[in-house]
């Protein structure tokens, strides 16, 4: 039994449900997992009180304005008598130890294990969501275990995880829980990484970046049409988030899930690559990941590998330095190539590091500095 | 030509001394409402038009406003017992909403015993949601298994309220409580979501009757309860056209608002546009000129 298996078993023993390959299964077919009264009641941050017991949430660009007893779009924040509460503070719906490459982070402590967790809920509604069984649910519709920040950090320590990853659903919506955990983890020398769609307002993002080391942004497409029809959100705030992170000290990687016929237009990818190069420079990694039919989009095939290769080629042509192919184990696009000498400096197979030819933060062959967090 | 009929029944004495609906008066209202709606001489004949003896009937109520602003047991149980003792089997009637907690907070005693009326939420063990999302246009949701599997016919017994986002919440929007993710459908005035949800086979095919509970109406700042903007209207509104019923509910809310010197929903730019979407989808009549409104007092 390895550490991962042990974690699965021990958590199952304390009545946490399945922690499979990184994803939990909510109890969707029978009863709700937790009555609403067993959810958390911790006052939310970033909201305004309005007259007549209304509130306006300012955490994300939706700015939900809600009356008493109403919840925001994300389904995990509730106005109770004019005060806004997060219902998912310490309410972990999915928990796992994952390789950091699975997030994916390719330029952040390669080969390390990330203690990964999520609560239910999301502030977007992607029709192709790969984690919909927690992200598109309300917290009372999945099984939760109570794991407050201290317990998260202690468990991560117990399993020698150097990183905690806030991931799977959308960490923005469990901001308070994430932030407090980050703070505690950092004091104990554990690094924090966030996997997000970047749908967050600048002020909470700025505060969050004070306590996290890296953020991976899922850029869903480079057209507003796609965001309107398949994501139910706006593109511009996400681009703003990308720029804000790139300007900070927080490490950034970008993932673009390529869905056949929906967001795989080469011209859009060219425009996006140009935009990225102009706005944040060529050095932040971008991963073109393979889509698998899921949730509300089941009528499309998995992304052809040739499409991923073509889009990768375009991004490289446009001058981006670190362009990866994701979800295709064994593909040469998984490796990191030195942009100067062209040699493979990190060789990967899926989530496994096969070879690392870095000396500190430099290419071992030519001495080129490779941006990232390497130690 | 007026193609849909909506009946509005008022009972001045509907509230008892404790301020709760008096079941005897409520029953009279139900009877009269259904007689006028169908032209039947006896209300039971009207019920028999929509429900077969073997039908399992869901009465979907809305308890989010708890005791202060919900379909109260005095109203829904009266309907359930009447239906269960005349046309259907009592234990084939389910009064239901999202959660047991909300039902209990509203004053319901949960019940799932053989032989008697059933009252429970989707979170009851053995209920829950469908495994896979059901998709219709912009809707992609898991459905309560009560709506999906445990009933054959449905009554939307909905509380009528002003709604900050939708404009009006009534019989159509009541079915937001039948899915797992209503929070995803509140943008753009809940349009087209409310209409498209009703259009799904699981709702449209099973829906038989809308009854709007307008005994107490929150006409401003809804859907939350604000006593200063709630009025004891003492009305129940009946229709087999779910869109027309809600359109008449909207009219009532706007009349109350006008009487209190408040701007209309349209003036506040939040009229329930989903009703017009519903009309376009062929779900019913949203325009008052196409609706015959019959009003009577009992
Ligand atoms: S975080 Fe949730 S409640 Fe707040 S604005 Fe975003 S979706 Fe709305």
Give a verbal description of the structure.
The complex is a heterodimer of chains A (375) and B (298). The longest helix of chain A is centred in the last third of the chain and has 15 residues, at 266-280. Chain A has 375 residues and is an alpha/beta fold. Chain A has nine helices and 21 strands. Chain A has one domain (91-363): Aldolase class I (TIM Barrel, Alpha-Beta Barrel). Chain A is 25% helix and 23% strand. With 298 residues, chain B is α/β, with parallel strands linked by helices. Chain B has one domain (4-297): LarA, N-terminal domain (Rossmann fold, 3-Layer(aba) Sandwich), CATH 3.40.50. Chain B is built from nine helices and eleven strands. In chain B, strands 1, 2, 3, 4, 7, 8, 9, 10 and 11 form a nine-stranded mixed sheet that branches. In chain B, strand 2, helix 3 and strand 3 (93-97) form a beta-alpha-beta unit. The longest helix of chain B is centred in the last third of the chain and has 18 residues, at 242-259. The mean pLDDT of chain B is 97. The A-B interface holds A 27-32, 35-37, 52-54, 62, 65, 67-75, 125, 127, 132, 136-138, 140-141, 232, 295-296 and B 64-66, 99-102, 122-131, 133, 135, 140, 142, 145, 164, 180-181, 183-184, 186-187, 221-226. The structure holds iron/sulfur cluster. Iron/sulfur cluster binds at residues 57, 59-60, 62-64, 72-74, 77, 123, 173 of chain A.
As laid out across the biggest beta sheet of chain A, the strand order is 8-9-11-12-13-14-15-16
Ligands = iron/sulfur cluster
- The secondary-structure class of chain B comes to alpha/beta
Annotated CATH architecture of chain B: 3-Layer(aba) Sandwich
- What Rg of chain B do the Cα atoms give? 17 Å
For CATH, the homologous superfamily of chain A is named as: Aldolase class I
Overall pLDDT of chain A, averaged?
92
- CATH homologous superfamily grouping of chain B: LarA, N-terminal domain
Helix content of chain A: 25-40%
Total count of strands of chain A: 21
Could you say which overall geometry of chain A the principal axes of the C-alpha atoms support?
globular
For this structure, the quaternary state is heterodimer
Give the amount of beta strand of chain A, in percent.
Answer: 15-25%
- Cα distance spanning the termini of chain B: 29 Å
Tally of domains of chain A? 1
**Beta fraction of chain B:** 15-25%
What would CATH call the class of chain B? Answer: Alpha Beta
Write the H/E string of chain B, N to C: EHHEHEHEEEHEEHHEEHHE
Instruction: Write the CATH fold name of chain B.
Output: Rossmann fold
